[in-house]
Amino acid sequence: MAEPDYKKDMGAFLSMANYPLVKYTDMTTETRDSAVDICITAVEKFPSDLEKCTQVIKDAMDKKFGFPWHVIVGKYFSYEVTSEARHVLDLMVGGTTGVLLWKL
Question: How far, in Å, CA of 12 to CA of 98, rounded?
Fold first, then answer.
């Protein structure tokens, strides 16, 4: 049985998705760049332990930008959050891992 076209297309996308995709942010450029670097490092370091990845991102953001940051890392989720102005980031890493980062 042949593989469906959408699975071939998804496989091609995932093989090329080696860069982060910022889906939404209202952060300043400087804050966004630092947050993206922190998120990429954590996701690459702990690809199978999303809980540890989440804790690493939260600790790094709290230390660098002040308390309290909130983080969700996962494969499939939706969200609706309230945040401080200029303190939210929705990011895809590696094509399959979503990272939501916001500050209250």
Answer: 19
Alpha carbon separation from 67 to 35, 62, 78, 81, 102 (Å, rounded)? 14, 5, 24, 17, 11
Q: How many CB atoms lie within 10 A of CB 99?
A: 27
Give the global pTM.
Answer: 0.81
pLDDT tens digits along 42-84: 999 998 999 999 999 999 999 999 999 999 999 988 889 988 8
Cβ neighbors of 4 (< 8 A, separation 6 or more) are: none
Segment (H or E) for 38: helix 29-45
- Per-residue pLDDT band for 26 (boundaries 50, 70, 90) equals very high
Contact of 53 with 73, CB cutoff 8 Å: yes
Q: Which fold has domain 19-103?
A: Protein Inhibitor Of Neuronal Nitric Oxide Synthase (3.30.740)
For helices 50-65 and 29-45, angle between their N-to-C axes, nearest 10 degrees: 150
Tokens 């309230």, residue?
Answer: 82
